[in-house]
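Thread amino acids onto this structure.
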């Protein structure tokens, strides 16, 4: 649907799944000759904002390259 609606953009199929109450897995998929495959998987821990330091909050303002 993405490719049809936005033909000039690079479509990125993603999904999220909770592993534990505070741990989430993020997946990105790509279409290959063998079908749909997971191209990347990343696990992130969900925390309360008050548990983050000022330095950590500042680091989220910068997009990593």
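Threaded sequence (65 positions):
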């Amino acid at each position: 649907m993405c490719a049809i609606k936005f033909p000039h953009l690079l479509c990125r199929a993603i999904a999220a799944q909770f592993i534990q109450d505070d741990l989430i897995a993020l997946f990105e998929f790509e279409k290959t000759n063998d079908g749909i495959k997971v191209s990347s998987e990343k696990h992130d821990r969900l925390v309360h904002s008050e548990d983050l330091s000022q330095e950590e909050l500042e680091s989220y303002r910068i997009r990593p390259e």
